[in-house]
Specification:
Length: 295
């Protein structure tokens, strides 16, 4: 993978400083230097000590990322919402893990991506999952296609510049039009799976907007500002508004909803290389839409 930059300064500048200005992570630069990559200026090999002149063309050639043998390739179908050189947006169905586990080592979004990468013969075969979803949550996931894109997306996450919005059906009908749930989340004392609101937990902030009210529930739009495990599920349950179908947190199965009624319907961020605003939406899955139609 090649990344090209033109030095547009008016004075000579050492290449090392130029790479810092471009906010290239130090770990990435080390991988270029020591793992088979290359740095060129005007198509000639150089080191980071090279003195750039105005209008010089800098090319960074990243080392090829060989896939991990522990991730088993799967040829099961994958719903790709968008793809370019640097990232993919995947629409995940219910019942599919984001990454493999000990109990499910061979079918997850990551396994299917590996099969897809192999079919496409992509040089970089490492799977970089940026935003995960729970097994039974549907909707959009962001996948970086190489380590530099992953680093830039992680930076946007840390800086609160990557927006994730969800649609959820709560069994509680009455909600304010808008609000914040600012309640720390910790692991439950009696379980390695469930989480709970606790003053000793990690900070967790969720914003919500009421979209519609029904006789047996409400449709909410929610935005995450932190990424705690089960954050939306825990926060809604804490307010006695567990997701329909979320039996783990006090919800109940209802009509056709045999899973937590949660869907990631929007991702928004800036492209890691062009800086263009990117916005992706995915309509509700059939089971959630059917519940709404029946109510």
């Amino acid at each position: 993978m090649e990344f090209k930059y033109q030095y547009q300064g008016e004075r000579p500048l050492i290449l090392r400083e130029f790479l810092v200005q471009k906010q290239l992570p130090s770990n990435f630069i080390k991988s270029v230097k020591y793992q088979g990559g290359q740095m060129l200026v005007n198509q000639q090999p150089v080191t980071v000590r090279y003195m750039l002149q105005p209008n010089d063309l800098v090319t960074i050639i990243a080392p090829v990322e060989v896939g991990h043998e522990t991730v088993i390739a799967s040829n099961e179908p994958l719903d790709i919402h968008y793809e370019d050189r640097d990232f993919l947006i995947v629409n995940k169905p219910a019942g599919l893990l984001s990454i493999p586990s000990m109990l499910n080592p061979d079918d997850s979004v990551a396994n299917r991506l590996k099969g897809y990468y192999q079919q496409k013969a992509y040089p970089d075969q490492v799977i970089h999952v940026v935003t995960r979803l729970d097994k039974d949550t549907t909707g959009l996931m962001l996948i970086a296609k190489h380590r530099l894109a992953h680093a830039f997306f992680d930076r946007q996450l840390r800086e609160g510049k990557l927006t994730r919005q969800y649609l959820a059906i709560s069994h509680r009908s009455i909600w304010p039009d808008h609000g914040f749930i600012d309640s720390p989340i910790a692991r439950s004392d009696d379980s390695i799976i469930t989480r709970t609101v606790s003053p000793t937990g990690q900070a967790a902030l969720t914003e919500f907007w009421l979209q519609n009210q029904y006789s047996q529930g409400a449709l909410l739009k929610l935005q995450l500002y932190t990424g705690r495990t089960h954050q939306i599920r825990v926060h809604l349950s804490h307010l006695e508004g567990a997701l329909i179908g979320d039996t783990l947190y006090g919800g109940v199965y209802h009509y056709n909803m045999q899973r937590p009624a949660l869907h990631c319907h929007l991702l928004a961020f800036h492209h890691p290389f062009t800086e263009q605003p990117m916005l992706f939406r995915q309509e509700l899955p059939d089971d959630m839409q059917q519940w709404i139609n029946n109510n």
